[in-house]
């Protein structure tokens, strides 16, 4: 029991740390992608907390299992939340909004999880209930594959490809585990209802997702360390941008231009389309009254020398 307790704590810590990174990214950039990721991880914490309670509180486990067999409202909310947030994340990565097909699939999943519990109690009924969620996960893998064929930033394609393999693999693995546990471990008799609510495959899936996200966030904000080593230059750049009335996004792009980043590299790092980056670069050129990007660094160096000479 101690091992399970420690495992649950470590799992919640992993979810919380990853969610903290996502919230920070959203507050800093106001990008809806990070908002959806934050909410997705919040549902990971919610789900694991419920499962944790069924493992340590017998009275809660009994009432939860009985309620699950007749009206699994809590699990349905968790599954629908995960489904909506995950497909919203993938849509953001593909630079598009949810389509009517997506909403139809979400409604079909909700209808599935509402109607299946109306069947007579049996292991097959529970297996069918979970099957809908795993089929949706399999569809997400296909949706990721379609995204790799679209005109989106290279970094987005990289993560879409990884998520494609993760979703397809774990949708099948979870079905295999469910099939074994539901028909061989759980008990669904008229006298006793005993459900093993934790899915090892789902836990591994959530851990893989968190590791992938942490890798992204750490890599994304690693340059911040270099900035803190030279705060004077950073403040000078901010002053330069304010003097030329750059917007927040133009400031971010200008900093990357100073680092000799190409338009495609800027688009990948800031999760923008190439066309949007080109528009912002054009606006920067107009405000600086220049025509070539090779003029940017000499212009900034001249500004820097002028400021330092007055100090």
TrEMBL record:
One of its GO terms (molecular function) is DNA binding. CDD domains: LuxR_C_like (cd06170). Signal peptide: none annotated. SUPFAM superfamilies: C-terminal effector domain of the bipartite response regulators. The keyword DNA-binding applies. Keywords: DNA-binding, Transcription, Transcription regulation. It holds the Pfam family GerE. The keyword Repeat does not apply. GO terms for biological process: regulation of DNA-templated transcription. PANTHER family: DNA-BINDING TRANSCRIPTIONAL ACTIVATOR DEVR_DOSR. This is LuxR family transcriptional regulator. It comes from Enterococcus hirae.
